[in-house]
UniProtKB/TrEMBL annotation:
Residue intervals of the Gcp-like domain: 31-319
Keywords noted in UniProt: Acyltransferase, Hydrolase, Metal-binding, Transferase, tRNA processing
Membrane-spanning residues: none
Species name: Candidatus Vampirococcus lugosii
Entries under InterPro entries matching the protein: ATPase_NBD, Gcp-like_dom, KAE1/TsaD
Name under which the protein is recorded: N(6)-L-threonylcarbamoyladenine synthase
Catalysed reactions listed for this entry: L-threonylcarbamoyladenylate + adenosine(37) in tRNA = N(6)-L-threonylcarbamoyladenosine(37) in tRNA + AMP + H(+)
GO molecular function: metalloendopeptidase activity
PANTHER family recorded: TRNA N6-ADENOSINE THREONYLCARBAMOYLTRANSFERASE (PTHR11735), TRNA N6-ADENOSINE THREONYLCARBAMOYLTRANSFERASE, MITOCHONDRIAL (PTHR11735:SF6)
SUPFAM superfamilies in alphabetical order: Actin-like ATPase domain
A Pfam family of this chain: TsaD
Length: 335
């Protein structure tokens, strides 16, 4: 068994966890996180300077909650090195290096997006995950498509697609703000969308780029929402509650269909047996429902992290990325 202390400070969540691999499962022994949402909510998004200051203020208390005795028992320290907010990342890396020097532990630098990719391993029987896997990472900061496959007893993680502008989570947040909703906006839009319906006059729909490319664009959806709101305001003076619900419904459908079409296309082209959705947007039940309905006839397993807290930015997934790549997928050199 290997046990690691994992640290994640790439954006607005300060998170530390102890994660182990027992030869079959990757599990969290202890995890403590601090979310900065309430501090950033008033600004409608993450303010980098505030994020790094709060990481600096909170991380020592979180380490104390993890406990010195537990830290001593860890074999290595794994920390997010990229991508992310530079000021936030440096807090985590500095603390990891201080701990590594003090306790004589090796420091492993991990990729934040790989953390999301391998978050599906946490608490799950890895042997029951059928390869190849088409993986969609969907959050406020990134949208990427990866294929995890095995050829000639060698595992390969191939990056085949990404967003060209806004990420889907960012689109949810900005559209929610235009509708007078809170930050973050994804859960709010998903909730009120249940009472919304389509309005053909508003022309809010998905955006599909070239058929043979795995690229996303969400800035256009944001623009469509902006002009739909202006259209109603010019005609009626203001949005009614039902207008807000309808726009939320169409916004969610547009994002879900944009995400779904490309990842399903990739899954079929690469003959994947599993389709995995990770990152904050993987908590959107409508996205899962849409993809499951579209892939049902192909007998494809659709999975996401087993706990919603594993979908957000968390240290657990950073530990899982290192342990999964090293012990199961033999991809330790990828960072």
């Amino acid at each position: 068994m290997e046990k690691v202390l994992a640290i994640e400070t790439s954006c607005d969540d300060t998170s530390v966890a102890i994660v182990n691999y027992d030869g079959k499962f990757i599990k969290t022994e202890k995890s403590v996180s601090y979310s900065q949402i309430k501090e950033h909510k008033k600004f409608g998004g993450v303010v980098p300077e505030i994020a790094s200051r709060l990481h600096n203020e909170k991380i020592i208390g979180i380490l104390e909650s993890i406990g010195k005795d537990n830290i001593v028992k860890c074999d290595k320290i794994v920390v997010t090195a990229n991508p992310g907010l530079p000021g936030s990342l440096i807090i985590g890396k500095t603390v990891a290096n201080i701990l590594g020097e003090y306790y004589g532990k090796e420091i492993i630098y991990e990729n934040h997006i790989h953390g999301h990719i391998f978050s599906i391993l946490l608490g799950r029987d890895i042997d029951k995950i059928n390869l190849p896997i088409a993986i969609l990472t969907a959050s406020g900061g990134h949208n990427d498509i990866y294929i995890l496959s095995k050829n000639d007893n060698k595992f390969n993680l191939e990056h085949i697609g990404m967003t060209l502008d806004d990420a889907s989570g960012e689109c949810f947040d900005k559209c929610a703000r235009m509708l007078g909703g809170p930050y973050p906006g994804g859960a709010w839009i998903s909730k009120i969308a249940k009472d919304g319906k389509n309005d053909d006059d508003l022309k809010i729909g998905p955006i599909y780029l070239k058929q043979n490319e795995y690229k996303y664009s969400f800035s256009g959806i944001k623009s469509k929402v902006y002009y739909a709101i202006k259209q109603i305001e010019e005609k009626y003076g203001s949005l009614s509650d039902q207008d807000i619900k309808n726009i939320a419904y169409m916004t969610q459908e547009a994002i879900v269909k944009s995400l779904g079409k490309k990842i399903i296309q990739a899954c079929l082209e690469y003959e994947c047996k599993t389709l995995s959705i990770v990152g904050g947007v993987s908590a959107n039940d409508r996205l899962i429902e849409y993809i499951q309905n579209k892939t049902k006839k192909y007998n494809i397993d659709v999975i996401r992290p087993i706990k919603k807290e594993y979908s957000t930015d968390n240290a657990d997934m950073i530990g899982a990325s290192y342990l999964g790549k090293k012990y199961y997928f033999n991809l330790s050199l990828i960072n």
